[in-house]
Amino acid sequence: MDFGLTQEQRLVVDTVRSFVENELYPLEAQVERDHGLASEVAREIRRKVLALGFYAANIPEEFGGGGLDHLTFTLLERELGRTAMALSTHFGRPSNILCACNEAQRERYLYPAVRGEKLDCLAMTEPDAGSDIRAMKTFARRDGDDWVINGTKHFISHADIADFVIVFVATGTEDTPKGPKQRITCFLIDRDTRGFEVRKGYGCVSHRGYHNCILSFDDCRVPDAQVLGGEGEGFALMNTWLSSTRLTVAAMCVGRARRAFDLALEWCASRRQFGQPIGRFQGTSFKLADMITEIDAADYLTLAAAWRLDQGLDANRAVAQAKLYASETLARVADHAVQIYGGMGLMEELPIARLWRDARVERIWDGTSEIQRHIISRDLLRPRGA
Ligand SMILES: Cc1cc2nc3c(=O)[nH]c(=O)nc-3n(C[C@H](O)[C@H](O)[C@H](O)COP(=O)(O)OP(=O)(O)OC[C@H]3O[C@@H](n4cnc5c(N)ncnc54)[C@H](O)[C@@H]3O)c2cc1C
Q: What distance in Å separates the CA atoms of residue 287 and residue 289, rounded to the nearest whole number?
């Protein structure tokens, strides 16, 4: 492994960091206050990212994207993690699952998503099927050349502003080593499709301004042409997508943790009590030492997982370790940062309170910490027949 950054990678890091600091930091307070972003502000962010040449950096060049490898893309996500999700969403990273589109679907979904004309969202989770995703109840039945979908998804991020949804639904059952499970198929559904409705979701403690939604499918009829990747291929597609999105979560947690750390470090040096900077008290300085050590460890785990993906090596455990450790590190770092700031750490006027609130969801979405531990431990025990 060699993490000495190439010139191109340095350019990516410097460009994205300066964009985040100059263009996105100034909008953070407004997003928090308004619990959202005006559509013209969102459009303007997308326009600037397109002009910068960074839109859809994760999508292969053959489809018009930036074609970044996993390591370079992880570096980009690490920088985006420093700011609010409501803002970074418009930096434009279409789901890489769209690479499974056939030619007609590319014209209708992938290319417009790469050009910043259409925004996708992705729906797996249901009220009764979270971690146990194969227990999903949303069902599509065949009717001639069409499929008719019924059911409900919830917690679906930014569906309120998406033009189409990549949705996973059951289309039957199949035998697996663990008994019969839902056979899953992935569909591309346009927002204005009859029988499909996007409703307001729940108010969330984390990431204000980045809304989760409830999706209802009520006899929603779509042609066979809307199936992505073939009938019954949904579970395999989902797993491909999950490893890269979990790596993204890990990278963003590292970026967010570094931002909280940088702020806490400054505060330790400048805030004075008992006639000296509070950083002179071992109770705070040792916190700084623990914070930076854990952040660096999370960073290395994340980069190592990206490196494995780039080498074509099995990265399932490495990605789970990175997601687990980075999200848990962020939680500890954000909590220490609040403690170091004292009362001001909890005031909405400073970014620390937001970083602390935002940290909480990272141990839950894209697979909870327990599910990551399950993946890691199964990877260790399965070869031993246990
Ligand atoms: C703000 C937000 C946005 C989201 N965005 C999206 C989105 O865009 N698209 C989407 O599809 N989903 C999205 N999700 C859903 C997210 O991925 C799920 O919340 C997550 O997978 C956990 O499912 P659950 O909430 O139903 O919890 P549950 O699965 O009910 O888990 C509850 C608890 O039980 C534990 N548990 C469950 N199974 C096991 C097990 N086998 N071993 C050990 N412990 C276990 C869990 O770790 C957890 O602690 C979002 C969630 C949130 C909160």
A: 5
